Amino acid sequence: MNKSKIDSVCIIDDDLIYQFLAKEEITYTNLVHKVMFFDDGEQALYYITRTLDNNLTALLPDVIFLDINMPVMDGWEFLEAYLPLKPRIGKTITIYVVSSSIDMRDWDRARNITAVSDYIIKPVSSNRLVSIFTELLS
Question: Phi/psi zone of residue 72: left (φ > 0), alpha (ψ -120 to 50 degrees), beta?
Answer without folding.
Answer: left
